Amino acid sequence: MGFLAQFFGFDGKSPQVISTSADLLRSFDRERTAGEAVNDRTAIQTSAVLCCARVIAEGLAQVPCKVFKEDSYGSPTEARDHALYYLLNRRPNDWQTSFEFREQIGIHLALKNNANIFKNKVNGNVVELYAFDPSVVTVEQNDTFDLTYKVTLDGKGPKSIPADDIWHIKGPSWNGFQGLDAVQMACKTIGLAQATERFGSKLFENGARPGGLLTTRTGAQALTPEQRNEIKTLWAAQHQGTENAHKTVMLPFDLEFTPVSGTANEAQWIENRKFLIEEICRFFRVLPIMVMQSGATSYASVEQMFLAHLTHTLMPWYERFEQSAEVSLLTRQELLDGYSIKLNANALLRASHEDRASYYQTMKTIGAMTANEIRAKEDMPRSTDPEADKLTGAANIFGGNNQTPNPAPSPQLDDNEVAK
After folding, report:
1. Residue 28: which residues within 8 A CB-CB, separation 6 or more?
2. Same domain, yes or no, for 230 and 375?
3. Cα(263)–Cα(371) distance, rounded to whole angstroms?
4. For residue 218, with 0-12 CB atoms within 10 Å meaning exposed, 13-18 middle and 19 or more buried, which class applies?
């Protein structure tokens, strides 16, 4: 507990003290939920969980990641000569592309709220980036608030790695140095979803719902245990399983079949599955429409839908990624010199051809963009025309190319004034 414990009078022995993320998770009953074991491996077998994780991971990976440096005017320009530019934009290590690397980070963040990346340095410079499996990394904070990362690989004892060699991206955190495990925080909902799927699997495996009841006729002799077992075997062979659904069953002995009508439980099972998808989306902060949930909230346009998705789901992750990358990968002097690391989300908001044409026309008209800047945004080659690099406002606003507005027309003279 350190000096803070002494200051506040804690003895460090109370079992009620929650000081780490692990303590918080242990305060919940998470051994089994709804009879299901919930962990990373089982959680992603639930379609809503996997889809939420992919939405976050692919959203983090599909946009360009670049290093910028402010020029003399304070405008950001791509710093292609910086060593991190190639690592973040193309190839962080020998076996991954930038997309694959950031997608892996996104999966870790979505499910564990932690991504731990090892910075392989040569002469103090980062030359490679490796993402550790979150399950092999633990974080410890000592009395002076310094952090130590312990990594267990290949079943060997944990190896301590200085915090300066780890790029740690955190999601929502209880203690400030380790993100809360998202799967375990949502384990009750995920466990219920798993149990619901298992129930549906067994329901159809055994012939959906019971079609009726087998009973002996009034006055018939009671069945012996052997006869009951024989009936059970016969019924399973002729009726159990979806392949035997709706078949006629020959009834032995003196038995009769009483049909059973459908119940509301069947419809409630379907509604419960839909509700659980929305519950899982709430935990991962993903719009239900992004996980292909039918009946989800509609938007006026596709552009507005993606804007809501970007604002509420992706932008918080983008900001966490960018800020942690800058403080972990760039030196203090580089930050002071104007270097920055950015994820460009403009591609996600690319509208229709008509909308883009209208936007570019407006920006060119007011003198905010040149023709070559517009061509660059559309991934078109630069024009060699010198005029394509000039800002040209509309003539009716600015009087043409940097000219004064058109002079007012001369007043008309009447005949008497002309005679004079």
Report:
1. 184, 187
2. no
3. 66
4. exposed
Does 316 lie in the same domain as 187?
yes
Has residue 121 been placed in a domain?
yes
User: Residue 414: what residue type?
Assistant: D
Same domain, 140 and 197: yes
| pLDDT class of 301 with cuts at 50, 70, 90 | low
* pTM of the complete model: 0.70
Residue 175 lies inside a defined structural domain of this protein: yes
Secondary structure class of 149 (helix, strand, coil):
strand
pLDDT tens profile 95-154: 999 999 999 999 999 999 999 999 999 988 899 999 999 989 999 988 888 898 999 987
Give pLDDT tens digits for 256-275. 666 655 554 555 777 788 88
- Sign of CA pseudo-dihedral 181, 186, 192, 197: negative
How many domains does the chain contain in total? 3
Q: Are residues 138 and 128 in the same domain?
A: yes
Is 67 within 8 Å of 78 (Cβ atoms)? yes
Q: In whole angstroms, what is the distance from residue 131 CA to residue 109 CA?
A: 11
Per the structure block, which two tokens stand in for 130?
């490796």
Measured CA to CA, the distance from residue 181 to residue 25 in angstroms comes to 8
Domain that holds residue 40: 29-208+281-350
Residues 104 and 149 in one domain: yes
